[in-house]
Design goal:
With 160 residues, the protein is mainly α. Helices cover 77% and strands 0% of the residues. It has helices at residues 2-7, 9-36, 43-54, 63-87, 92-95, 98-117, 130-157. α2 crosses α4 (63-87). The longest helix has 28 residues, at 9-36. The model has no long low-confidence stretch (mean pLDDT 92). The chain crosses the membrane at residues 12-34, 65-87, 94-113, 133-152.
Length: 160
Amino acid sequence: MERNIKNSSSFIKAVAITALIAGTLDMIGAIISYTANGGKNPLVIFQYIASAVFGKVAYNGNVSMILAGLFFHYLIAFIFTLFFFLLFPKIKLLAANTILLAIVYGIFVWAIMNRIVIPLTRLDHVSFDITKASIAAFILIVCIGLPVVIGAKKYYRKFA
């Protein structure tokens, strides 16, 4: 049954909708955090994301770099959502507690992004700051972890 669920169009639709929601919430969280810390132009966030692939040229003011950053942002949200949807049926012990699972997954996403993905990019190394890391992890827990857990639980509830 599980293989049929994953191959169905309803599975892809559920993952896509959940990723869109999570990616949008994460984007809003990033924009709020950025502007609360004195940032003037939130489009710089997407240039920063694009600079992971394109380097400093991403800051040249070109709209295509902002769009590339936006694309990468949603692609990453989709990948993390898909991963969780595939993992969810295998983690029955934690599945009962939505909040705990959202916390664990949000911290997992933070760790993968900050300890594996970002070091592999063209981004400059930034020293660890516990306050910034805590804020980023909190945003990921609320904006990625929570909607992804809720989306997966809602999807798999149909087959229970």
